[in-house]
Amino acid sequence: MNTHRYVKLIEYAINNKSFTKNEACSASGVCLTEFENICSELFILTTTQNIHDSEWQRWTLSPQAYFNYLQYCEFKHSVASAEQAKKNSIWAIGISAALALGSILTTVFNIKF
Fold first, then answer.
1. How far is it, in rounded angstroms, from Cα 60 to Cα 69?
2. For residue range 8-23, what is the model confidence (pLDDT) as tens digits?
3. Which residues are CB-contacts of 37 (< 8 A; sequence separation ≥ 6)?
4. DSSP class of residue 111?
5. Pairwise CA distance, residues 6 & 69, whole Å
6. Backbone angles phi, psi at 60, to 5 degrees
7. How close are the terminal C-alpha atoms of the chain, in Å?
8. pTM, two decimal places
9. Cβ(59)–Cβ(18) under 8 Å?
10. Which of the residues 28, 37, 55, 113 has an alpha carbon 20 to 30 A from that of 1?
11. Residues 13-68: pLDDT tens digits?
12. Which residue(s) pair with 19 in the sheet?
């Protein structure tokens, strides 16, 4: 599952409380225009002044962005669990088939162990 640029930006903000816009953009793959457009959705803005792209700023994720990120993590985990369950069930079916075939062959050929 590919991680979207916005998710990478949220992860960057979780791991780094203070950063510049340029750092966040290069770490997540989001361009500065995108950052400006989604900034108010992802962060609690403490100032209304225009922040320079290379100016250090303390960024706080909004509760909505954080909880959406947690839901994304849960979804990602459930997809991985489903994939593992699928693999396990294929192995279980294969083993059951092998045991059933062994039982049939034993009965047909009257082989005793």
1. 14
2. 999 999 999 999 999 9
3. none
4. -
5. 10
6. -120, 125
7. 49
8. 0.69
9. yes
10. 37
11. 999 999 999 999 999 999 999 999 998 899 998 764 567 778 888 899 999 999 99
12. 57
Q: What angle do CA 20, 74, 33 make, to 5 degrees?
A: 30
CA 103 from centre of chain: 45
Give the whole-angstrom CA distance, residue 47 versus residue 38. 16
Element housing 43 (H / E) = strand 43-44
Closest C-alpha among 1, 31, 15 to residue 66: 15
* Beta-bridge partners for 44: 60
Amino acid letter, residue 5: R
Could you say which DSSP state residue 29 is in? T
The one-letter amino acid code at 46 reads: T
